[in-house]
Predict the structure of Type II secretion system protein H.
Amino acid sequence: MLADERQHMLRRRKKPAGFTLIEVVVTMTVLALILAVVLPSAGTWLDNTRIRNAADSLQTGLQTARSEAIRRNESVSFWLVSLEKPNVLDNDCALSGTSGSWVVSVTSPAGGCANSPSNTTAPRLVTARPIGDSGGLVSINALQSDGSAGTTVTFNGFGRVTNSSDAIRQIDVGGPNSNIEYRKLRLEISSSGAVRMCDPQLPSSAEDPRKC
């Protein structure tokens, strides 16, 4: 009896540890299926986060321009600018209605986006912000009231829009892939200078304050 028990214990000790080949294959297959389901939604979630961050940044720039105009009691403008490197403000910048980088200044910052803030030296820059590395992962489309591309909006000392004929009236922020349904956002600028973020995908009939 003791001999049988000893042989049984020896057999248990000699049993190889770890996973069998079948177990490894099944585990890898399950992991691959999980990743196939999770990765696309995770990528879309990251893009939606970038859209929100870009929209928040643009709203901050617009509100800064308006509040600075009221504080100074003079016209101050918000400008959209393109940069050679999306995370570096440089003096090769140009006005662009499809870029998320922005400058708040009194005169046009084209060719002077890297200037230090100043009350006397052109473009009399107040503040600026590059869109950063996420610039290629969001789409920006700034439009005037007639639907043409816009690059600037100017506020006066009362906080109202003064360049009504060519002012930015809305900025649409979306994702990089037209085949994916992102959580797009829109910024609307009224004649009174109010800046509002809304959801352009909600139907106009929806009882939702977020609708555009």
Remarks:
- The chain has one domain: 21-198.
- The CA atoms of residues 62 and 78 lie 6 Å apart.
- The chain has a mean pLDDT of 87.
